[in-house]
Specification:
- The chain is mostly helical.
- The chain has ten helices and no strands.
- The radius of gyration is 17 Å and the shape is globular.
């Protein structure tokens, strides 16, 4: 029980590192929560800080999820934990995403979890057969919707909805299917304001 608790807590704390907030404070002395959409994520960082810092935040947020599942997972799966193998990795990934979405360092207000979820799924795809195909389809879905609309939130929502569908049709493990369903709900809930703006035609399009 002690090792299981440690695995989940460390994953949560890793996910809780507020990358966009730290970059905003460090580079421009601003609170990114008071800029643009107010979201502590890569898209708002790109708008508030520029393309370079925004891409860096994106990569670091992906890395949080990847490290939690693959590297921390490799460490903890060899300990006397209650869960083993892929089930422990899935739960650690979920805790990391929760840390990003509800970070303890910013009064439990964080990002929307897209990049960190991608990092988690990317790491899981290295351990679970067939998930690589699902990831490829997810990336394709995101790119098609984004190229057509130039709206990051719409592409993210569409990919989130597609995730459990792809997991179901490609017969992924039951725990992974439930994770995909939960992540889909997370993304939709975290994008409520974006959905309202999309329906009103007011959601900003990303320009390069």
């Amino acid at each position: 029980m002690l090792w299981t608790t440690a695995a989940l807590l460390v994953s949560y704390l890793l996910g809780s590192i507020p990358t966009a907030y730290l970059f905003g404070k460090g580079l421009k002395g601003i609170d990114i929560r008071k800029i643009g959409s107010g979201n502590v994520g890569a898209t708002n960082a790109m708008r508030a800080l520029g393309r370079g810092p925004g891409i860096t935040v994106l990569l670091l947020d992906i890395l949080k999820g990847f490290i939690a599942v693959l590297f921390l997972g490799n460490y903890f799966v060899n300990k006397p934990v209650l869960l083993h193998g892929q089930n422990l990795r899935i739960l650690m990934g979920l805790c990391c995403i929760c840390g990003h979405n509800w970070t303890i360092f910013l009064q439990f207000k964080g990002g929307k979890g897209i990049a960190t979820s991608f990092g988690v799924l990317l790491a899981l795809s290295m351990k679970i057969a067939g998930l690589g195909v699902v990831m490829g389809l997810l990336i394709l879905t995101w790119l098609v919707i984004f190229i057509i609309s130039r709206i990051v939130s719409l592409a993210s929502i569409a990919s989130a909805i597609a995730l459990p569908i792809f997991c179901f049709f490609f017969k992924q493990p039951i725990p992974l299917f439930w994770l995909s369903l939960l992540l889909s709900v997370f993304v939709i809930i975290r994008h409520k304001a974006n959905l309202a703006r999309i329906f009103k035609g007011e959601e900003p399009r990303l320009k390069f």
